[in-house]
Amino acid sequence: MTVQMIRNAEDLAERYDIAIVGAGPAGMAAATECAKFGLRTIVFDENSEAGGQIYRAITRNTPAARPYLGRDYWRGASLWEAFVATTASYVPAAAVWSLEQQDEEAELRVSVSGRSMIVHAKRVILATGATERPMPVRGWTLPGVMSIGAAQIALKSAGLLPEGRAVLAGSGPLLYLYASQVLAAGGVIDAILDTTPRRYWLQAAPHLLPFLISPYVWKGLGLILKVTRAVRVFRSVTALEINGKDRADGVTFTAGGKTVSLPAKSVFLHQGVIPHANLANAAGCEMGWNDRQKCFAPVVDRQGRSTKASIFIAGDGNGIGGALVAEFDGRIAGLAAGLEVLGKEPSEDLRRYGRLRQKALRGRTFIDLLYQPAPSFRAPAEEDVIVCRCEEVSVGAIRAAADSGVAGPNQLKTMLRCGMGPCQGRMCAATVTEILADAQQRPPTEVGTYRLRPPIKPVPLSEIAALPHTPDAVYAVTGTHSEH
Amino acid sequence: MFRSIESPKSRVRVIVDGREIEADVAASVAAALLGAGMTAVRRSVVGGEPRAPYCLMGICFECLVTIDGVQNRQACMVPVRDGMVISSQRGARTMEVGGQ
Amino acid sequence: MQTLPDQEIVVVGGGLVGAAVAWGLARKGLRPLVLDGEDLAHRASRANFALVWVQGKGLGAPHYARWTIGSAKLWPSFSEELKETSGIDVALRQRGGFTFALSESEMGMWSGEVRSVAAALGEDAPEHVLLDHAGTARMVPAIGKDVVGSIYSPIDGDVNSLRLFRALHAGMVNLGASYRAHSDVTEILPKAGGFLLKGAWGDVFAGRVVLAAGNGNARLAPMVGLSAPTLQSKGQILVTEKCEPFFPYTSTTLRQADEGGVMIGDSQEADTSSIATSQDISSVLASRAVRTFPQLANVNVLRSWAGFRVKTLDGLPIYEASPDHPGAYVVMCHSGVTLAANHALRIADAIAGRAATLADARFSSRRFHVSQH
Known about the structure:
The complex is a heterotrimer. Chain A is α/β, with parallel strands linked by helices. The longest helix of chain A is centred in the C-terminal third of the chain and has 20 residues, at 323-342. The model of chain A has no long low-confidence stretch (mean pLDDT 96). Chain C has three domains: 2-49 and 162-230 and 313-372, FAD/NAD(P)-binding domain (3-Layer(bba) Sandwich); 97-154, no CATH class; 234-308, D-Amino Acid Oxidase, Chain A, domain 2, CATH 3.30.9. In chain C, strands 1, 2, 3, 9, 10, 11, 12, 20 and 21 form a nine-stranded mixed β-sheet that branches. In chain C, strands 6-7-5-15 form a four-stranded mixed β-sheet. In chain C, strands 16-17-14-18 form a four-stranded antiparallel β-sheet, covered by helices on one side. The longest helix of chain C has 25 residues, at 62-86.
């Protein structure tokens, strides 16, 4: 048996037992579990290739062609092989733009090959992964500036290495992982500007023990050693800004009490990842603040059930755990959703995956606390720094609204348009919450975040118009039961 | 800002703002543009500032370009195809005269 | 819990109506305190269609038609003064508005309504023109073949409603008002010389109180001896990405904001209390938009949005001073943008001057008592 690849909207069925959104580690693992039950399972993935971001291009990369990607990356190949061998349907390049719980089921609206369709599923598993936390600094909108995740995607999927002077800035393991991959591939990184405050080692220290017995420790130390031998590393960097008029030509920052300027043709930024939960948010799933990870995430139980009964959320989309945790999370949600559809009791497998997940989470607290981005990068003070890149709303405008007592992110949106552009707040929501919390001295959990509405990705009017016009909807718009 | 470190396996040709470039068949439009030495792909809608692909994973909407006549497509989400015509954008969507 | 300093006048509600009244009161030298709710409170002001609209309004209620026309005429000077007090240009454009009909029956129904309103107003009726497809296409060449005709009225227009909201807030504070969010008022106790307003946040004593809490007035008005019964009415719109200018006029169902985005409306649902949008309704809205302007077919929708209208039993505003509890007022209506000029300049002046009636006496809620007996 192999997955049924669907590339045209017309080939979709109206109903499935389980619909999974995302084909990264959580999505592929969830689909594999669901399909074992013989349930009608469909996986929608926005990318044209499976793997998610972590296993980007796993379906065509080989260790021979791209050996520099490192051992952890190739774990994705076995996930893909297992997924491909199932009876699930798999729809690449499919954007699910609306999700709604209706009675006991869920309704999805998905755009495939330029056409939107409505699909119903008894259970939905959102495996929408993570996005990089925005890192708003002066100059971050200039060409030549990119996220480190993006640079890594360019390497994984297209074999692109930085050309000319390249600087990495921010915090988190990805700085060192990406640097090591670049070095292994024969590239050069000029400098790493590590913005991790020195005091964060103290805040993380009590959680050192589980970290020391986790697999992270040796990998992490090995990477850092390898990279620091080859690359200049500036630590406890503050006051970072990117210079340049029409494109980046350098960086200026403070480190060790000195202001330093370096030329750079490419500047890559990263300060960790946060759940990509736009679809869950728009579906009305309750969101909660995770103070250790400094982000909003959908509220889920141990098996991934959200506050909407038909919607499960697995992997980084419900809180950051990394690829291995996401995989077990996906298996757990897949099993739990499958058992619910079949009306069966929790199985031993479910408990076993739960234990594996716990093991994979070991050391996470230490990493979360050590690599918490510094407050000055989460809630910048520089008034001219752009926060909402789409509507070009600055720190100063947001802080002024905060000072005048704006009720929260949604009123702020009304006032300033931040979050109203095509990215639908993906690039500014986290920063807006943090700035309001900082300026109004309120906890982020109270400040809240944007309430989103479909479509969560832009969809042409003609595609929406071509979907069925129900009598109730016609009546609501025209006041009559006929459209003609 | 990038260079390709691989010899081409299977190449396609696309037209970017009237110039022909080569790209790997498996690349996204954004990766093809970056690999060809292009960074800024548009002028922003509100302030007219130059903007370039930022996230390469469908999140940031900075890489919006016109592909085969369709405006505001995310270059990072669309695989290249031989003969594709890509153009950079300036500001807001222009209206298509006459419609469909 | 805290007790705020005593206030001479408090406005309950910081939406378009409350902010316009507070702006007007501050303009008259008062220092109103605006108490507003939470970030995710039901807020009609976040879901309005931004029209300054007269056409067809006031069917069977000529006093409402006159009230609306008056506000539309006040708008130019109001927007100038808003700009002076806030530094914000709200992009008022009164270049004329269309109602596009996609069938003969729609054309017949709407033109009948506009004619009836005009007949009741006599010489005061604003100009309107009935156009067939060709006549419409001469003015708006981009319309689709499905547009059978339209009603055009030169008096109609729109503003940038988000900037209007910000201008009112910034302006009222500049003029001396103050604003406090997270201060939902749940109880009002009439006391000697004023009112004690209470909520989970604490309380405040106010010499006078203006209830501008939209649908929330239904609950609050009886506490000051008034009534403000409402009906459930949910409206939904679609918003697109920004486009180059293509439609210099405005219309009841489709307009282009000065920033480029296209707003597409609207719907009416009476049977739901969920604030979430309905994608079934989005399909019908999208279809009508593309039939009206075929060149919108490829334009991307960025979001759907819904809100609950402030709808009284007859759909008309309530403006009333409490006879039992002098110093308490109810101000509420649908069309908070169109009527913003009236609220800021006329209603606020009446309250500032302690007038016994705020506007035409027919806007009193006593009209509902009569019909119930």
